[in-house]
Write a structure and sequence with these properties.
The chain starts with 13 loop residues before the first helix and ends in a 9-residue tail after the last helix. It is elongated. Helix content is about 70%, strand content about 0%. The chain has a domain at about 115-235. The relative contact order is 0.10. The protein has 10 helices and no strands. Keywords: Membrane, Transmembrane, Transmembrane helix. InterPro entries: MFS_trans_sf.
Length: about 250
């Protein structure tokens, strides 16, 4: 029975006093956020930065770099193999052939003899000039006797003869050294040495035939001509490598 004055009213039940979970969620929407969606930094509402373990991204980058390096090495190996199989350039072939001839094949006999003739031509010229210096006074006296110009004094003639003899002697020494050097290099099959020894020999021959005219000078020119004939003989020419076309 009810007490008087409390008609129509009932005591609140336990169900009425305890709010439901749905009502709490409706009243406080931020209080029921799922902790699984929290960011790794702890800030509520931020999206997760990564769900992978630490160090996974660095390891993947290292694997990619290593794979690229392997691809580059694989691409370079066939290229190097092709370069090794490629034929050597013409200059290298000529140098190899020259070295092979130098160490394996002796030079032709005509080429060796031409070297001796070139050296002899230079030595004969040098000896003739040394003899001219020894008998310099006789040459000066002969030139004074042959002089018909009264304006030229004997002292001027002596000075001029002395200077000419020394200049020609130095030239003879230089030609002897150059003929010996390039003549020897020609025996090794060097085309440039053959060209140079030919030029110096032609100059020597022209000088003795046109300007000098002494007996020793003519003999030196004859030796140089024989050396040129042997140098350009067919057997000697076959020893030299072919001319390289740029």
């Amino acid at each position: 029975m009810t007490k008087p004055g409390n008609s129509g009213s009932e005591e609140p039940t336990q169900a009425d006093q305890a709010p439901t979970g749905a009502d709490d969620a409706t009243e406080n929407p931020g209080s029921t956020a799922d902790p699984s969606h929290e960011s790794p930094t702890g800030a509520a509402g931020d999206p997760p930065s990564s769900t992978l373990p630490a160090g996974t991204d660095k390891g993947g980058a290292a694997d990619v770099a290593e794979a690229r390096a392997k691809v580059r090495r694989a691409d370079a190996e066939p290229l190097m193999a092709d370069l090794e199989k490629a034929p050597p350039p013409p200059r290298e072939q000529a140098l190899r052939a020259q070295a092979k001839r130098r160490f394996e094949e002796p030079p032709p006999r005509t080429l060796r003899i031409s070297f001796y003739f070139f050296v002899a031509a230079g030595l004969i010229w040098l000896i003739s000039m040394v003899a001219s210096l020894i008998y310099k006074q006789d040459i000066i006296d002969n030139e004074i006797k042959r002089n018909t110009n009264a304006k030229i004094s004997p002292d001027q003639i002596a000075t001029a003869v002395n200077q000419i003899l020394w200049i020609v002697t130095i030239a003879a020494l230089a030609f002897t050294v150059l003929l010996a050097l390039f003549g020897y290099k020609a025996t090794e099959g060097t085309r440039r040495a053959r060209t140079l020894v030919t030029i110096f020999s032609v100059v020597l021959v022209l000088f003795h035939l046109l300007l000098n005219g002494t007996q020793l000078g003519i003999l030196s020119a004859m030796f140089a001509l024989v050396g040129l004939a042997l140098l350009w003989s067919p057997s000697a020419r076959r020893y030299f490598p072919p001319r390289q076309v740029l």
